[in-house]
């Protein structure tokens, strides 16, 4: 599938760099400013305010979990790894921590712009997927409730298919998800007669 | 006492795009003569000239030869983006600086390069803005099959989406190919409001010839309908294109007859094209930076641009791009006639702060 890149708004965006003062930071800052970003450098702690940045650059050579006010893999902003040492232990740490793009050190004359674009696209895809997985997990967890609700409706003399369709009709009338409708049926003490849609719309 | 400084000149004055290379070289040599005749600057340039002949693999070795065999740290050179990207590693390795005086597609800000001609906010975006309102929003995109055409057309596609325009088609031609009949057939069938043409060299010449034939036989393409746009056509190429260039609308920082030329030209206007003017301006800006600053020719570019008074030269210390006026002009009777001019605007290579330049009335146009 062809992926069309949407170019993020970079003019005036903020980049946070967590790296000790070094030529790498100078080169990175120059490139970021040429692109049009505002740059904040931090060391050795990442202040809470860095969460509000649009991009984060981290130094894989020296980084450790305690520097970050979030759990590994849950960075709330697009993160770009600056890789110096290719020792497997450092790469392992990076894989756990998670980054959306990487640049090899020493940072020279270029590489930052493409890293920004890739990090933003990867981050957006990551957040989108995480949301989708959450929703699917939740629906999966509610499978039992759906079975119970269908059984309750079927107990009133309908076939299983009719009960299923009735539940779908209720969900539509209530404008809630199928799983939420099932939960409502199951939790209603008196059964489906007590949970007719408020508009009195007839469901088959 | 005048100090003599070696200055590299790396243009292809032979080979497929020799007309552009010759225009650039002429501008640089004109400026060297001007600097050398001006005792107040306290410097004289000695030209170290190499001709890569349009061979992409000759650029880096010749650039290194200039930096190795002479005292030159600054090189004025390159016509294509491809050749510029080829020499940057050599500049990094050997501590050189390239002054790149031709239009390009943006998205670069090397610490080793001064970008002295226009980038898309200084050519493509104003050109499209003008043509969306003057001709319509049904667009056809074409170009030679390499970075210039690809990236320019991507920007055009985005700009066209932003104004609710419609890209009817997009087709590329291999560099050097003159087999453009499918392209012209498609345009004849689609009848766009204009064609954005990023073809170069012989492909562009063949395309313009074929479009002229189309105009002669199809009334839908006659009388100025469906103009062809360019962001790099200048007076330098008009003689070889001939009558087929009639009606082409081009954008650039300057066309012959406009007053003044580029800020870096310091009032001089005796140039054949903006290629020549931008190369002249490059040498003049360098001369201003080095004049009365002993040893400055050995400084890295960021340090040179940080010298007191350097900001007056007009090069952004942030992006190394220059501030340039914008003109949109149409070929009529073998010369460019300005349609619209804009106030000078800073180069914005990543299009992150872009505003459209301000339209400025067509004043002081010499006839």
TrEMBL record, chain A:
GO molecular function, one term: RNA binding
InterPro entries: AmiR_N, ANTAR, CheY-like_superfamily, Sig_transdc_resp-reg_antiterm, WH-like_DNA-bd_sf
Pfam families: AmiR_N, ANTAR
Residue intervals of the ANTAR domain: 126-186
Domain of life: Bacteria
Protein's name according to its UniProt entry: Two-component response regulator, AmiR/NasT family, consists of REC and RNA-binding antiterminator (ANTAR) domains
Taxonomic path: Bacteria, Pseudomonadati, Pseudomonadota, Alphaproteobacteria, Rhodobacterales
TrEMBL record, chain B:
Pfam families in alphabetical order: Peripla_BP_5 (PF13433)
Superkingdom of origin: Bacteria
Membrane-spanning segments: none
InterPro entries reported in the protein's UniProt record: Peripla_BP_I
Classification via PANTHER family: ALIPHATIC AMIDASE EXPRESSION-REGULATING PROTEIN, PTHR47628
Protein name according to UniProt: Amino acid/amide ABC transporter substrate-binding protein, HAAT family
Organism: Poseidonocella sedimentorum
């Amino acid at each position: 599938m062809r992926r069309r890149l949407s170019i993020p708004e970079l003019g005036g965006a903020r980049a946070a760099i967590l790296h000790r003062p070094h030529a790498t930071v100078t080169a990175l800052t120059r490139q970021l400013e040429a692109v049009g970003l505002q740059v904040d450098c931090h060391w050795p702690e990442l202040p809470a305010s860095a969460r509000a940045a649009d991009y984060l650059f981290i130094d894989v050579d020296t980084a450790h979990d305690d520097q970050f006010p979030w759990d590994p893999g849950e960075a709330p902003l697009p993160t770009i790894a600056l890789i110096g040492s290719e020792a497997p232990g450092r790469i392992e740490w990076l894989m756990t921590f998670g980054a959306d793009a990487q640049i090899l050190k020493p940072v020279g004359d270029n590489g930052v712009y493409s890293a920004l674009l890739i990090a933003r696209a990867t981050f957006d895809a990551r957040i989108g997927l995480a949301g989708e997985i959450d929703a699917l997990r939740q629906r999966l967890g509610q499978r039992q409730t759906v079975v119970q609700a269908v059984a309750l409706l079927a107990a009133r003399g309908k076939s299983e298919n009719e009960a299923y369709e009735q539940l779908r009709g209720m969900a539509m009338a209530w404008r809630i998800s199928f799983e939420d409708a099932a939960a409502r049926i199951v939790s209603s003490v008196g059964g489906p007669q007590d949970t007719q849609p408020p508009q009195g719309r007839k469901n088959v | 006492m005048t100090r003599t400084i070696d200055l590299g000149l790396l243009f292809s004055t032979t080979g497929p795009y020799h007309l552009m290379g010759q225009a650039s070289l002429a501008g640089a040599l004109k400026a060297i003569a001007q600097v050398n005749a001006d005792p107040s600057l306290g410097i004289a340039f000695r030209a170290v000239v190499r001709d890569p002949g349009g061979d992409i693999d000759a650029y880096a070795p010749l650039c290194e030869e200039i930096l190795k065999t002479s005292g030159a740290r600054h090189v004025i050179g390159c016509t294509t983006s491809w050749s510029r990207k080829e020499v940057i590693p050599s500049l990094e390795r050997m501590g050189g600086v390239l002054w790149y005086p031709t239009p390009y597609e943006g998205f670069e800000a090397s610490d080793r390069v001064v970008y002295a001609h226009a980038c898309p906010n200084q050519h493509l975006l104003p050109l499209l803005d003008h043509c969306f309102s003057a001709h319509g929003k049904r667009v056809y995109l074409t170009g030679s099959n390499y970075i210039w055409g690809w990236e320019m057309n991507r920007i055009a596609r985005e700009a066209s989406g932003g104004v609710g325009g419609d890209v009817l088609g997009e087709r590329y031609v291999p560099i050097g190919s003159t087999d453009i009949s499918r392209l012209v057939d498609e345009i004849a069938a689609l009848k766009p409001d204009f064609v954005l043409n990023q073809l170069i060299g012989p492909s562009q010449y063949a395309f313009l010839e074929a479009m002229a034939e189309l105009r002669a036989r199809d009334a839908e393409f006659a009388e100025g309908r469906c103009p062809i746009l360019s962001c790099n056509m200048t007076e330098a190429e008009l003689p070889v294109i001939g009558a087929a260039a009639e009606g082409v609308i081009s954008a650039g920082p300057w066309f012959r007859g406009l007053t003044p030329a580029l800020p870096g030209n310091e009032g001089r206007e005796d140039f054949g094209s903006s290629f020549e003017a931008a190369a002249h301006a490059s040498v003049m800006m360098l001369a201003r930076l080095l004049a009365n600053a002993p040893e400055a020719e050995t400084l890295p570019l960021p340090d040179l641009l940080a010298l007191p008074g350097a900001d007056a030269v007009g090069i952004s210390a942030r992006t190394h791009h220059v501030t340039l006026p914008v003109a949109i002009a149409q070929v009529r009777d073998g010369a460019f006639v300005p349609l619209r001019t804009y106030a000078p605007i800073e180069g914005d290579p990543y299009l992150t702060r872009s505003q459209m330049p301000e339209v400025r009335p067509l004043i002081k146009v010499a006839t």
